[in-house]
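Handoff note, outgoing to incoming analyst
You'll be picking up this chain. Sequence as last confirmed:
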Amino acid sequence: MTHAQPTTTTTMKFIDSTHSEWHRVVGEDGPMPHPDPAPHLLLSLEQWHAVRDHWPAGLATGVEVPNDYAIEDLASDLPRLALVALKFPKWVDGRAYSQARLLRARYRFTGEIRPTGDVLVDMLPLLQRCGFDAAALRHDQDLQAAQRALSFFPAFYQGDVTGRPAFATSGA
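Most recent structure output, in case you need it:
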């Protein structure tokens, strides 16, 4: 009897927002409209649109995208981005799952995709299957529970961005 190989891995980077290498550029009144170039800046979509035409190539740059944004409008910028952070304003609003899947499957984005906002432990397996590879958990979520959640299911019947479905590898 042949057993299916796992279609996902339990590897996901968990972000400690107080010690992250990525930094937002904010002033007293919110995001600075025209930030100066520097590595590892996590820019709002508005900031990115304001600076992208003169932003240095090869600089590790991230963009935070609202979940109601048409992700295809970011497609031409993806080669210049190292991180796309997708917002979950509420854990019950799943539009960012679709954005992540499009980034990985349609646009072949190889940089980091990170959920931000109302990110719960229960969401992690689906986040990973949709293409997220890092997570900034909500402040009341437990890191050890999050790591366990990723190992609950060794394989899935449906395909995802990480591999083929279990039935396709079982020799059936």
